[in-house]
Design goal:
The complex is a heterotrimer of chains A (848), B (304) and C (274). Chain A is α/β, with parallel strands linked by helices. Chain A is built from 27 helices and 26 strands. Chain A has a 6-stranded mixed sheet with strand order 19-21-20-26-18-24. In chain A, strands 7-8-9 form a 3-stranded parallel sheet, with helices on one face. A 3-stranded antiparallel sheet of chain A has the order 10-11-14. Chain A starts with a helix and ends in a 7-residue tail after the last strand. With 304 residues, chain B is mainly alpha-helical. Chain B has one domain (12-300): Formate dehydrogenase/DMSO reductase fold. Chain B has helices at 12-39, 44-67, 94-119, 129-134, 137-160, 165-169, 173-196, 205-230, 240-267, 275-300. The longest helix of chain B has 28 residues, at 12-39. The two termini of chain B are 14 Å apart. In chain B, 56% of the residues are buried. Chain C is globular, with a radius of gyration of 25 Å. Classes of the chains: A alpha/beta (848), B mainly alpha (304), C alpha+beta (274). Chain A binds chain C through residues 6-7, 10-11, 13-14, 17, 21-22, 24, 34, 36-40, 44, 723-725, 737-745, 747, 762-763, 778-784, 786, 806, 809-811, and chain C through 10-11, 13-17, 19-20, 23-24, 29-31, 34-35, 43-51, 53-54, 56-57, 72, 74, 78, 81-85, 169-171, 191-192, 195. The complex binds ligand MGD (2 copies), iron/sulfur cluster (SF4) (5 copies) and molybdenum atom.
């Protein structure tokens, strides 16, 4: 769902296809369009864009009231032990059922929630174990909260399960038909298949991509899937899970090593001027206390090792390891608000490496105009992208709206090296780190981004080396030692390329004293004796000279010796859940990690007798649990991290060791997913009075007008998406004739019904219009698109692949001229998958 | 039948014209031979005219054939295998065998042409003339005629032995039709030359006229049969310019009309036009029809 | 031992990677006519947008040796619908119309069974073009000669597989020895029949003497644009020639009766001298 896997992840799609053709797996595709993925699936269920929560919510409702789910003991055992179904929620929590689409805690201005009422009911906090707090760990130990209260019978109306049951009671097959426009029978087919293919013996997987994320409720859609999969016992088990198919190659790696503005490498939070982050201690207390009863109890070790890796010898206990000199964020610096600030003239310079916002950015007209407000911009790319060329030939220049001579932005266009011209690693969808070699030197002046950043850093350090200003401490003391060894550069023309090995070693972590790589994050210390760029990657270089990202030994199952799956080579997260609470495999067929009571644990009891029993995984899979913690072990109430977690707390990154059906924290728009219409929608929310996500990120600024709900001028739902033949903004495909000719022109997919209504002929030009802009495209009239009957009214949906721009071999209008700047409140992703528009035959400006 | 089979892209002004001219040449030649063979000395003038026509016309054809090649300079690969230089023939390929036939025909036509000159005393001075006139001309005329029939026919077989639906559907009649048309156009050419040479009182003419009529009848029958057997695939011949060329040009102007005119000329004693004049006009029309026949059948097979 | 390819259309995703790989390995140009500078728009405008599903290649030819077909079939109410993909190329027929037709010996069959056009021999007579019953070959204006898939002649004679098979992400195209490919195809067919694909069939065991590039289809070959009754043109040659000869004989007969005829008006000529 929300992914067109065959088209966008064509290589990975061979595996589902193999499962289908060789093992009889049932493939289902829930998508507004019939795509190349649908073509290869057993079932295609069409839904109107932006209604996935209704669809999934109704499956949840269907599942928990089904006979199978209520009679097969597997489900109950899994749910009671491994999820927070039994946990009691605060008495003053109010659900959307009570508040007609809102949760308790909404601020009076209606812009933000406080999650205080979403909390667990807890026992009294334990007596703190440590008397005097010498270390950050001691500090955390003093603040261990009481255990959550539970009712394993699930009868208590305040249990998560009962709240959830009530919450989803209005999500029925009939609402699916009415809101999603998907026939009831199709829906039931999907729900039943999913249910029947889950259990002790079988698992099902849900795969998504940006068809789910690019919504004002993107995170909550994924949450709904996670809830469903937890209820079906499909998490932590082979063949199960909720899989995100990531975008660009190594976009996973780039989130791990934190190109996101609000996180540090390894998913630590970014120091934030708006939070209680005055000192390292404050930072750790604020961020780690709520997580201290999970594996995040090690937060201090990860944080200190990170600062050590930044500042080396200069990072000392006395100066908080340089914490004060580290940049802090002051607000939402994600892409959309950044460009809005830029348009307001608040941003002076921009370094763009590997991005083409003049085409890929939402409300691209506004984004291009924002670029014109910069003093300078550096673009590193292989082609003169639309962004690099915006100042001389953008649509705004051509239409005379802007004049090239009036744009003061100084553009530096630098040639980038392509991937084959550099050494490095990819971390893809499945968290697998794989190294790639350099095949050739880049031509001419082209250089890798690592080279550019490294040399830029070196020059800046040179410039600041004599500065006596305190504010320049960080740049002066930044550890910047990636100078390649002579041997590394020997073969190549470019001798000053930073050492990929040294970079990865820093990310992996090493002991400060003797610079020895660390084999595991268990070795990290909070006293400054270890340095580590990103704790999750520790182990990729377990010893000097050994790079597990280069290992290439596959087998026919988990392939533990192919690359390195962070963390600790675990391919399936929370794999403790692949065994039942007593540690036995749920079934022979789905055996992965289990407790072997006879195995030698390697530990001895105080009397010196060997203690038997440990977790084993014959496939070589990294075990996601403390190796010798027995299934029946009860965690220490005043313990930290793993000590607090019990032998069946499989979800080690959650503060209660459970999968969260109900999320007491971590989300800003509610603890349970509820259906809200897309921000721009042709219909009213038929489930609640609340129309759309109340806390969605909305920017009511000039040049970013929105459409009203059920706006008669914009009655058609529009979705933007990709094609196999092109890549994103087209910079890497529209310039290449062999690819460009495959899909030579921007086209719009239209159902024959809508085409007839608007007198559109296949192959002719059409114009699509929103309040933000207009684009013209060729019409591709096809039954693969279909109108939806929403509550008795026909709603049309059209689709536009968005790969075109005005540079390159294949050219066309920029689809993002149409999109609004509006975003998900949790992660600031735009809503490019569901908005509204109007459509008519003919080219722009009424030309034929 | 597969409509996706590609169109070769043979240009009518090269290929159909090649078919046409080679057809006249071959037709004139075999008429000449047959007339003399079956009709004896009485038809000597007709045979001589046929031989005078055949050679110069066949000389015109290689340039046409070659001009349509993608790589004209390699035309000799048709006869010699490029890799070894050894003579090459592919028996399954009418084009390959036809190239040899064309060469053979050209050679025989040359001999007959020479013979004409010698026997008319135009080459008296040449030292070989005497010796030459001793070679029995019928021998090479027969060989040349067989090659001539081949040349006239293979151009049609070429079309039939492809996978283009129209040509497949008209299979196996195009070869025979082109032969019949070669006869009628060859006859027309002979008539024109004879009229130009003021030989219209020649004793061979009545037999020649009969033959001419018969060949036109055969041509007409084949043309109609061809459309009938092609069934729905004849569509390209029933629409647009091709239909005009085929029905109006090849069938009506090229066969029906001349047949009718011939009949009229013999019946109506005093027409407004002298019979010779009428016959000349008809001969021109026949040639015209012959060209349009080739063009229309070539183009009908190359309609998308 | 002849080699070839087995194209299992049931697992083709229509990604066109095979098309691109073919062009890349064989250094084929993109169709030069595809992008024309439009003076009104002041930019290159594509002329090959077909509006025919996702197929903008249209046909096989001199610069497109491989083409993925997209077959959209939906009932009016969409209760039944499917989108079929099938990657197509030269089939390297054992009885190859193109090879049979070539007058110069430019088209040869190599030791591995593939049908290969020798560029230095071809004269561009274009006879092979309509002689291929599958519409595979066409003339390149640039070289004056005809081109088609070579079965990656250079690769397979150097121990590699074909480029398109190599790159196919789902294994829809596989390269190997015919005997083994046929075994795999039969197994796959049985598997599909077991899964309820009653119409599944293999195309290319008998056609044109057996195709070295053969297909597994989920429905009748016609649905995928492949002719079900292929007649190699040259198999019709005997009849065509016979009829032409008959035509010649008929004319001979006509000549006999015409020129032999007596009773010509005596004043018209002299007596026959023999
Ligand atoms: N060939 C190719 N591959 C790519 C890329 C590329 O540009 N070209 N881009 C890469 C990148 S960066 C990314 S992020 C991924 C994206 O991979 P995908 O997310 O698979 O790509 P999209 O085509 O944007 O959208 C997927 C599908 O979501 C559907 N959809 C739209 N709205 C909804 C909805 O509300 N609900 C549901 N269920 N479905 C909806 C669309 O119809 C579309 O078929 O692909 C990566 N892979
Ligand atoms: N309407 C709409 N808009 C969308 C989306 C959508 O679905 N709908 N999808 C969104 C998504 S998921 C994404 S990921 C974005 C993508 O948006 P962008 O990231 O802006 O798009 P790309 O075309 O991938 O741009 C990457 C650029 O990096 C260059 N490049 C590639 N490798 C390197 C390298 O090693 N170094 C350097 N310096 N440059 C390199 C490429 O040539 C290209 O110009 O678009 C978003 N925009
Ligand atoms: S483009 Fe690269 S990452 Fe994407 S599917 Fe193809 S091979 Fe995989
Ligand atoms: S498919 Fe056509 S081009 Fe290929 S071998 Fe057969 S006849 Fe020749
Ligand atoms: S075009 Fe070339 S390959 Fe084709 S038949 Fe003629 S000579 Fe042979
Ligand atoms: S075998 Fe080689 S030449 Fe033929 S289609 Fe595949 S890649 Fe192209
Ligand atoms: S590469 Fe394979 S899956 Fe992709 S279109 Fe070609 S045959 Fe189909
Ligand atoms: Mo993406």
């Amino acid at each position: 769902m929300g992914s067109n896997m065959a088209e966008c992840h064509p290589v990975a799609f061979r595996w589902p296809l193999k499962a289908k053709t060789e093992h009889g797996a049932v493939l289902m595709h829930v998508d507004p369009r019939f795509t190349r993925t649908s073509a290869l699936c057993d079932i295609h269920a069409p839904i109107r864009a932006g209604t996935d929560i209704v669809f999934l919510g109704a499956i949840i409702n269907h599942v928990i009231h089904s006979e199978r789910w209520n009679t097969d003991p597997f489900f109950r055992e899994y749910v009671v032990n491994y999820t927070n179904a039994a946990t009691l929620i605060a008495a003053d929590f109010k659900d959307t059922e009570d508040l007609d689409g809102l949760y308790s805690g909404l601020s009076p201005d209606g812009k933000a929630y406080s999650n205080a009422t979403w909390a667990y009911q807890r026992e009294k906090p334990p007596a703190p174990a440590a008397q005097e707090a010498k270390t950050f760990t001691d500090l955390l130990l003093q603040r261990i909260p009481g255990r959550p209260k539970t009712d394993p019978t699930l009868r208590n109306p305040r249990t998560v399960f009962r709240i959830l049951e009530r919450h989803y009671s209005r999500y029925t097959p009939e609402t699916v038909e009415k809101i999603c426009g998907c026939p009831k029978e199709k829906f039931l087919q999907v729900a039943e298949s999913l249910l029947n293919n889950s259990g002790s013996d079988r698992t099902s997987n849900i795969t998504y991509a940006v068809g789910w994320t690019q919504h004002t409720v993107g995170v909550q859609i994924i949450r709904t899937a996670a809830i469903l999969q937890s209820l079906l016992g499909n998490i932590g088990r082979p063949g199960g899970g909720v899989l995100a198919l990531r975008g660009h190659a190594t976009i996973q790696g780039s989130t791990d090593i934190a190109t996101l503005y609000h996180s540090l490498p390894g998913y630590l939070n970014m120091p934030d001027a708006r939070k209680a982050h005055e000192s390292l201690k404050d930072f750790i207390l604020t961020e780690a206390v709520p997580l201290s009863t999970s594996f995040w109890g090690n937060y201090p070790k990860y944080a200190v090792s990170y600062f050590k890796a930044q500042f080396g010898d200069a990072a000392t206990r006395e100066n908080d390891y340089g914490y004060d000199y580290h940049p802090k964020i002051t607000g939402d610096h994600s892409h959309m608000p950044m460009f809005i600030d830029m348009a307001a003239g608040k941003i002076k310079g921009l370094l763009l490496m590997g991005q083409n916002p003049a085409v890929g950015g939402q409300n691209a007209r506004l984004q291009r105009k924002a670029l014109a407000k910069l003093d300078w911009m550096v673009v590193r790319d292989f082609f003169e992208t639309e962004t690099a060329a915006f100042w001389r030939n953008s649509p705004e220049i051509r239409s005379g709206e802007l004049k090239a001579s009036g744009i003061k932005t100084e553009v530096f266009f630098l040639p980038a090296a392509v991937v084959a011209e550099m050494e490095g690693t990819f971390t893809n969808t499945q968290r697998l780190i794989q190294a790639h070699d350099k095949a050739v030197d880049p031509p001419g002046d082209a250089r890798s981004d690592a080279w550019f950043s490294f040399l830029l850093g070196k020059r800046l350090k040179e410039l600041y080396k004599d500065s006596t200003h305190d504010r320049d401490w960080a740049i002066r003391n930044l550890l910047w030692n990636y100078e390649p060894d002579a041997a590394e550069a020997a073969e190549w023309r470019i001798k000053d390329e930073p050492s990929a090995y040294k970079l990865l070693k820093e990310i992996n972590g090493y002991t400060w004293e003797d610079r020895k790589p660390l084999p595991s994050f268990a070795n990290l210390k909070e006293d400054g004796s270890t340095a580590c760029g990103a704790w999750i990657y520790t182990g990729v270089i377990p010893e000097e000279g050994k790079n597990r990202a280069k290992s290439r030994k596959g087998d026919d199952w988990m392939s533990p010796n192919w690359g390195f799956a962070w963390p600790a080579n675990r391919h399936i997260m929370y794999n403790r859940a692949s065994a039942d609470p007593s540690g036995k495999p749920w079934s022979e067929k789905k055996k992965l990690v289990y407790w072997d009571p006879a195995a030698d644990s390697g530990t001895k009891d105080p009397a010196g007798k060997p203690v038997p029993g440990k977790w084993v995984a014959p496939s070589g899979e990294g075990i996601d649990f403390q190796p010798t913690k027995a299934p029946g072990f009860r965690g220490k109430d005043n313990g930290l991290g793993f000590d607090w977690l019990s032998g069946n707390d499989a979800f080690i990154m959650r503060s209660d060791g459970k999968a969260w059906l109900f999320a007491p924290a971590g989300l800003v728009d509610g603890p349970l997913p509820a259906h809200y219409e897309p921000y721009e929608s042709p219909v009213k929310n038929l489930l609640y009075r609340q129309q759309s996500n109340p806390v969605a990120k909305v920017w009511k600024v000039e040049g970013n007008p929105y459409h009203k709900v059920a706006d008669p001028s914009y009655p058609i739902v529009i979705s933007t998406y990709r094609l196999t033949e092109h890549h994103l903004t087209g910079a890497m495909s529209r310039w290449l004739p062999w690819l460009a000719e495959l899909m030579p022109e921007l086209f719009c997919e239209i159902s024959p019904e809508l085409a007839a209504e608007r007198k559109i002929m296949n192959g002719e030009y059409v114009t699509i219009r929103t309040a933000r802009g207009e684009v013209e495209a060729r019409a591709l009239v096809t039954r693969r698109m279909q109108p939806f009957l929403i509550d008795g009214k026909t709603v049309h949906e059209i689709g536009l692949p968005w790969h075109w721009g005005w540079q390159g071999t294949a050219q066309g209008d920029v689809v993002n001229n149409l999109t609004p700047l509006v975003g998900d409140p949790n992660v600031s992703i735009h809503e490019g998958k569901a908005f509204t528009c109007d459509l008519r035959a003919g080219k722009k400006g009424g030309r034929a | 039948m597969n409509p996706e089979v590609h169109i070769p892209g043979w240009e009518w002004y090269y290929v159909a014209m090649y078919f046409f001219i080679a057809g006249i040449s071959a037709g004139a030649y075999f008429i000449g031979t047959l007339a003399e063979l079956f009709g004896g000395e009485r038809h000597r003038e007709i045979s001589r005219t046929g031989f005078y026509i055949a050679f110069p016309l066949i000389l015109l054809t290689p340039p046409l054939l070659i001009a349509d090649l993608g790589r004209p300079e390699r035309f000799w690969h048709l006869l010699f295998y490029a890799k070894s230089g050894i003579p090459y023939m592919n028996f399954q390929s009418p084009l390959s065998v036809g190239s040899w036939a064309l060469l053979l025909f050209g050679a025989m036509a040359f001999l007959s042409f020479l013979d004409n000159l010698v026997s008319e005393g135009k080459l008296q001075s040449a030292p070989f003339a005497k010796a030459y006139s001793r070679i029995p001309r019928k021998w090479y005329a027969v060989v040349g005629s067989i090659a001539g029939f081949f040349v006239a026919g293979y151009t049609g077989v070429i079309l039939n032995v492809t996978a283009r639906p129209f040509w497949v559907a008209t299979d196996p009649l195009v070869g025979a039709l082109f032969i019949a048309s070669a006869a009628s156009t060859g006859a027309a050419a002979i008539y024109l030359v004879m009229s130009w040479r003021k030989k219209l009182t020649d004793p061979g003419l009545p037999g020649f006229d009969r033959f001419d009529r018969l060949s036109k009848v055969l041509e007409l029958v084949l043309a109609v049969a061809l459309v009938l057997i092609a069934g729905k695939w004849a569509a390209p011949l029933l629409r647009g310019l091709n239909a005009v060329m085929f029905w109006g040009g090849a069938v009506v102007l090229g066969t029906l009309f001349p047949l009718a005119a011939g009949w009229y000329a013999t019946r109506a004693v005093e027409g407004r036009m002298p019979p010779e004049r009428l016959a000349t006009v008809m001969a021109v029309l026949v040639l015209f029809g012959g060209a349009l026949l080739r063009i229309s059948l070539l183009q009908a097979g190359q309609v998308q | 031992m002849p080699k070839g390819m087995f194209v299992d259309t049931s697992i083709c995703t229509g990604c066109k990677a095979c098309q691109v790989a073919c062009k890349e390995w064989n250094a084929l140009p993109h169709e030069p006519g595809h992008f024309r500078f439009d003076p009104v728009e002041k930019r290159p405008v594509a002329v090959n947008f077909t509006g025919d599903s996702y197929d903008n290649t249209g046909a096989l030819g001199a610069t497109d040796w491989r083409r993925v077909r997209f077959i959209e079939q939906f009932s009016e109410d969409r209760s039944r619908g499917r989108w079929l993909f099938s990657s197509d190329s030269c089939k390297h027929c054992n009885d190859a119309g193109c090879l049979n037709a070539c007058p110069t010996g430019a088209i040869v069959r190599t030791g591995l069974g593939n049908v290969f056009i020798r560029q230095d021999v071809c004269i561009g007579c274009k006879y092979c073009i309509p002689s291929c019953p599958y519409g595979v070959i066409s003339l390149s204006i640039a070289t004056g000669t005809v081109h088609k898939c070579t079965l990656c002649n250079d690769r397979i004679h150097n121990g590699l597989g074909t480029a398109c098979a190599k790159v196919c992400p789902t294994g829809s195209i596989s390269f190997g020895e015919i005997a083994e490919l046929r075994k795999a195809a039969d197994t796959r067919l049985a598997q599909l029949k077991g899964l309820g694909y009653g119409e599944a069939n293999i195309y290319g065991y008998k056609e044109a003497g057996g195709l070295n590039v053969f297909y597994l289809f989920l429905d009748r070959p016609q649905v995928y644009g492949q002719t079900e009754s292929v007649v190699v043109p040259q198999r019709r040659l005997p009849v065509s020639s016979a009829v032409a000869i008959a035509g010649a004989l008929a004319l001979g007969g006509a000549a006999l009766v015409s020129f032999r005829e007596r009773g010509s008006r005596p004043e018209d000529g002299e007596e026959v001298k023999t």
